[in-house]
Specification:
8-stranded mixed beta sheet; alpha/beta; 2 domains; Aminopeptidase; Alpha-Beta Plaits; 22% strand; 15 helices; 5-stranded mixed beta sheet
Length: 474
């Protein structure tokens, strides 16, 4: 739903006067990392995190009525604030195309400051830690607690996605349960198609096979169902993709924006359910998106491995950050390596001093990697050895995750990004683990085996989804 809010603003070429009125009631929050955003993001693309929240409050912190929760088959919150939908909208600075990349909610990832957990819990970890901190400092107002802790939750989620994808999140948009209900009703429903009939008491999804138009509570049930589907959470991701493609198509083609009543209903629904990051230059974004059509918006899912991965948090979806980062680079047409670096890239890299430590036991590897990083413009730090480690880690000073992502992108191997409070500003430490391929090999056997394992993992249909037609799904 946050995607359709952006489509309303950009894809139709709607006048700024209407856009300005459209956004005047939308909540904004200060959640972006240092160095994010701007007219033309330094990494060559605008990366927008779109989030569907399993929240029992509206965008302004007001509890949703119990009657509405019952209608949505939502029940009572279970003590966790989960993000049921996570999409990275990747747009080159020239605005030539848009790629929407879904991340399954059960993806097992590194959450900065909290260890490895399912990605849908990242928001909750940050929110509840901040809420406890605020209560201990004497804050008692429920709305203040909700707003400030939600900002912390969004920041933790953004850091988690940045660590997984290697991209800097330039903009953020979230929508809650209320949005799924009201936005779909405002546009007159969305066309979807099912390969088989379904009847799931958990989500309330009860649909026949074939094409149909759904809205309100039925729309929410459609995008939430995972029980009874062949690939569970992976099939749910595909459901969400085709639904948002249909919603984009309906908004663009059905005269919603030209109809004052429909436009007013849509505006009211978005004001109650959508949150955007502070300082988002919507005029700039509208200009960037104005030439796109439905066919230029493609929907994909990150590479996955075992969809029944056994973890302390229960069954999860296996993902490899290196595979994810390479996948995104491939979709955007970018390729790793120093030969593609611009002068601006090298100038930015030159502000970062990188120490490289060998924890893999491969003779000379730290020196070779240090040399590669120097070719990419980074300043050389120390080169040495470290205690044996299975995992490659890039450590950065507080508030400098972007520097670590720059280094990780240049390494051409699997990495995990962590904050290290002992590091000085402008410095990064790379610890090369056993999973890192030696530079001369072009990819070590361990890394290659891991990649092969992920590629062989179960997937949903590989057909590319766009906003041009109705795709039948499980």
């Amino acid at each position: 739903m946050s995607l359709v809010s952006l489509l309303v603003i950009g894809l139709t070429g709607y006048s700024w006067a209407a856009v300005e009125g459209f956004l005047e009631g939308v909540v904004s929050v200060d959640v972006l990392s240092k160095g994010a955003g701007g007219h033309n993001p330094a990494d060559g693309s605008r990366d927008i995190l779109l989030v569907g929240m399993d929240s029992r409050t509206d965008a302004k912190g007001n509890p949703l009525p119990q009657e509405l929760l019952q209608k949505l088959n939502a029940g009572t919150a279970d003590g966790e604030l989960n993000t049921d939908t996570l999409i990275l909208l990747h747009i080159p600075n020239d605005g030539s195309k848009a790629v929407a990349i879904s991340m399954p909610r059960d993806s097992y990832v590194q959450i900065p400051g909290y260890g490895k957990h399912k990605i849908n819990s990242a928001y909750g970890y940050g929110k509840f830690a901040k809420e406890e901190e605020l209560k201990n400092s004497g804050v008692t107002d429920p709305k203040e607690l909700d707003v400030r802790s939600n900002e912390a939750g969004a920041k933790t989620l953004i850091e988690t996605v940045e660590t997984l994808t290697g991209r800097t999140i330039d903009n953020y948009a979230s929508v809650n349960l209320l949005g799924f209900y009201e936005i779909t009703k405002a546009v007159g429903g969305v066309d979807v198609c099912l390969k088989n009939p379904v009847n799931d008491p958990y989500s309330g999804a009860n649909f026949p096979a074939g094409k149909q138009t759904i809205a309100g509570a039925k729309a929410l049930a459609f995008v939430r169902q995972r029980h009874g589907l062949p690939l569970g959470d992976v099939d749910r991701v595909v459901r969400q993709q085709v639904f948002m493609a249909g919603l984009a198509r309906k908004t663009i083609s059905a005269g919603v924006l030209a109809n004052p009543q429909k436009f007013g209903n849509l505006k009211g629904a978005i004001e109650k359910s959508v949150v955007l990051n502070e300082g988002w230059d919507i005029v700039d974004f509208a200009n960037q998106m104005s030439d796109l059509t439905g066919g230029q918006i493609q929907f994909h899912t990150i590479p996955i491995g075992n969809i029944g991965l056994d973890t302390p948090d229960g069954s999860a979806v296996e993902v490899d950050p290196w595979q994810v980062q390479q996948f995104i680079e491939g979709l955007s047409g970018s390729v790793g390596g120093t030969e593609q670096l611009t002068a601006a890239d090298k100038a930015a890299n030159g502000k970062i001093a990188v120490t490289v430590l060998n924890a893999a036991g491969v003779t000379g590897m730290a020196g070779d990697v240090s040399g590669q990083l120097a070719q990419a413009g980074f300043r050389k730090g120390q080169v040495g050895n470290a205690a044996p480690s299975e995992t490659t880690v890039v450590r950065h000073a507080p508030g400098e995750a972007d520097a670590a992502r720059r280094v990780a992108s240049a390494l051409e191997g699997p990495t995990q990004i962590e904050e290290d409070g002992t590091l000085a500003t402008g410095t990064v430490t790379v610890v090369l683990g056993a999973d890192f391929p030696p530079p001369e090999s072009g990819g070590g056997s361990q890394s290659g085996a891991k990649q092969a394992s992920l590629k062989q993992g179960k997937k949903a249909d590989d057909d590319t989804i766009t906003a041009d037609g109705v795709t039948c799904v499980n």
